[in-house]
Amino acid sequence: MKKPLLSCLLGFVLLAAAALPASADGGDILIKNGTILTVTKGVIVKGDVLVMGGLIKQIGENISAPAGVRVVDATGRFVLPGIIDSHTHIALAGTNEGSEAITPEADVGTVINADDTSILTALSGGVTMVHTMHGSANPIGGPNVVLKTKWGRPSEELVVKEALPTLKFALGENVKQSGRTVQPGQIQRYPATRMGANAIIRREFLKAKNYMEQWDRYNKAAAAKNPPKNLVPPRQDLRMEVLAEVLRGNMVARCHSYQATETLEFMELAKELGFKIACFEHIWEGYKIADELAAAGIGISVFADSWAYKMEAAEGIAYNAGYCAKRGVLVSINSDSGERIRRLFNDAAKTMKYGGLSEEEALNLITINPAIQLGVDRIVGSLEVGKQGDIAIFNEHPMSAYTRCDMTIIEGDVYFDREAALKDREEAAKKAAAPRDKGGVS
Amino acid sequence: MTKRALLIALLVIILAPFASAQAKTPGLIAITNARIIPVVGGEIPKGTIIIKDGVIAAIGADVAVPPGAEVFDATGLRAYPGMIDGYSSLGLVEVSGVAATVDSRETGRVNPQARALEAVRYDSMHIPIARSNGITAAVVAPSGGLISGVSCLLRLDGWTNRAMAVKAAAAMHIELPGLRGARGGFGGMGRGGAQVRADGPTLLAELKELFNAARAYEKRRDAAAKNRLLALPEYNQTYECLLPLLKGEMPAMISVHSERDIRAAIAFVRDEKLKAVFYGVEQGFKAADEISKAGIPVVLGSLYDLPPVWEDGYDALFRNPGLLAKAGVKIAFSSSSASAAKDLPYHAAKAAAFGLDKTEALKAVTINTAEIFGVERTLGSLEKGKAANIVLADNDILELRTNIKRVYIDGREADLSNRYTELLEKFKRR
Q: Of the candidates A333, A361, A379, which is a domain's last residue?
């Protein structure tokens, strides 16, 4: 891993240096004369956005820059909230603890990799926040984490503490391991069917309830005036501790699902056992059960049109996102990829053609909607006074195929600046072309 | 109303469509009031296209509608030539993760005998989706190994594979190693500073030997055909299938990615006297002048990929087409896919966002592709005498939001329903 890291650092060294923000607690910046797509408060055709101390202080016209504040001219360009990816696996040193079916103790938050160049890739596409998740190898994976794409900052500074704690669940082909050939001498991991996947999740939650009651009884007994002499605490179980948090409502489920049946049955499980589902992931057959999803108030985080890569994705129609949104489901478009993450705006735009969403509705799918899904819509997801200054600037309307991200700002600090990157590249090329000094020591 | 009057009225209603249909000449269609973007030749702000027997019989601003023509009023619509995908796996791959539905990749390394046309599933669910987005023809290519096989060029309409073939043998596919590290798949990890993995020049040397052996085989075979006293060489399918390539009857489509391999492949093509097309060419911008000088056209791979090496810059794949075109290289875009073949126009638009001229971007999904595969006399533009492959769109054909309203392939109005629309309609009815 050393070498790739080194060469990517070489490639981006100047950009990275420029990206290192001066302020750990939020920067100041004034963006002038852009078309401001606030997402929640309409469009200002020629407007300004002022960020002070990392927060949006003012949005309007003819705002003048306080002394010393950097001014970015956005004339002819589009200013929008930083894009949010509701489902990725970037910036992690590990994704899948798939050796067992149940691993809620395997927390991706403990393996954040702030040096992953996917963060730069994300920034180059205007992405300022990601929900980076445990993989889908097992029915109950681990807790996920929400990060800001603050390239160059230490991993603990990337974590968005305000976000809803989420636990990854998964159903279907990945969990069944239907794509895996069992080698001689190996046994197929349980579960190998959708029946088993459902049953094992039910079993674990019932065990967790049992575990919670054991502790309740113990705590009550221990708190009594005269605790029994031979009182022994139940054995602590890190898996049960996490599931208990889900049952208490302190964590919500994010569930990878594709087919309609498995999705409906997971909703039944949630009702039966009393936990909350925030969102279904991928859910290519969402359009078949849009009404059930809308009625249950469960969101979906989906691809625009990446489909037919496995059997359960063979009925994944490009209308899925747009149709579900029209039926009242809270929809976000995700990348699930270190490459697609830089063109989420293109994917969102596809819902205008497939599904008939308006420009505004399409833009919601990668801004305010994922913010709501992650429980951070009070602080990000739109350009509003008081929210964090996470902003992307595009040269053309972000829903146009011809658009390009020119600048990405997080909490008032510039983390991606295309113009600066091009200048750096030019200078590096000049340097490489220039004859080397002879005999000098550098 | 009297019974008699009722009867007459009924007859009029029933027979009306027949009466008007009888007055029409089959295969004669007039598209009127369209904003015509012919790609070759200037834009016509408001014009008419006459289709006769599958061919464009007339096109222009002052074209009269001939009597008997079925008229389609395209007011508010733009007319484009159908787009051509320069490299796809349409009909060879249905569900990529299910081996039973994948026919694109033969086992072994040298497979000049494998012909895409003979395996292409003409009723693939992916073809109508691509067609309904304005793509009317596609190169369908085998992949894998060193010599993957022979691609075909299909029109995306027809009831059998052979009926769809514009060119049964489009190119012989040769693959040089890719650049490790690209493509941001699941996880997005372990990439970054990548290095060229396998050795392109070594593989080219291997090909050289193979080609020499095939030429020697041909000599012995031909000599034996003339002289019955000579021993007939044992039939060798590999050599036999390489001969059209070596005689220049078929171009080589060489997947080539790194700067070093591009330079090596240019020399190889020159030395072996091949007709060649390069495919992929992610680092083409580093050898653009050389490619241009060699006169080798380029079909770009999917732009939905990361730069092969970070030093190329985050936007390397996006600006590469513009830099190649600027150097005078003839470029064409490809979906490099089956399930995402409909996205062809968006690769062109992405390149346009990063420096490629918009007119050039449109050419690179139409006329350039036709020229590269030698079908420019019938495909790639709206001109008199060409096949009537016409797309009517409500906006710029490369834009994501644009709706394709009507598609003609060889003068027939194509069915725009597809897997997407069928499933949507089914579940809308619930």
A: A379
DSSP string, A333-363: E---STTGGGGHHHHHHHHHHSS---HHHHH
With CA atoms as reference, the chain B residue closest to A288 would be B427
Per the CB < 8 Å rule, is A353 touching B187? no
Domain housing A173: 83-379
Q: Is B184 helix (H, G, I), strand (E, B) or coil?
A: coil
Residue A279 and residue A244 in contact, taking contact as beta carbons nearer than 8 Å? no
Of the candidates A117, A337, A421, the beta carbon closest to that of B185 is on A337
Nearest CB among B95, B311, B342 relative to A311 is that of B95
ipTM of the complex: 0.93
In whole angstroms, what is the distance from residue B174 CA to residue A140 CA?
Answer: 45
Q: Closest-CA residue in chain B for A93?
A: B189
Chain A closest-CA separation from residue B378 CA (Å): 29
CATH of domain B83-379: 3.20.20.140
Residue A402 to residue B353, Cβ atoms within 8 A? yes
What residues of B are in contact with residue A12 (Cβ under 8 Å)? 310, 314
DSSP letter (8 states) at residue B107: S
Nearest CB partner across the interface for B400, out of A90, A353, A395: A353
Regarding whether A318 and A437 lie in a shared domain, the answer is no
pLDDT, tens only, A104-145:
999 999 999 999 999 999 999 999 999 999 999 999 999 999
Q: Quickly tell me which residue has 């049992």 as its tokens.
A: A210
**Distance between CA atoms of B259 and B262, rounded to whole angstroms?**
5
DSSP states along B367-419: HHHHHHTT-TTTSSS--TTSB--EEEESS-TTSTTPPEEEEEETTEEPP---H
Q: What span, in angstroms and rounded, lies between the C-alpha atoms of B40 and B384?
A: 11
User: Tens digits of per-residue pLDDT, B5-38?
Assistant: 666 665 555 555 454 444 789 999 999 999 999 9
Chain A residues close to B423, C-beta within 8 Å: 287, 315, 317
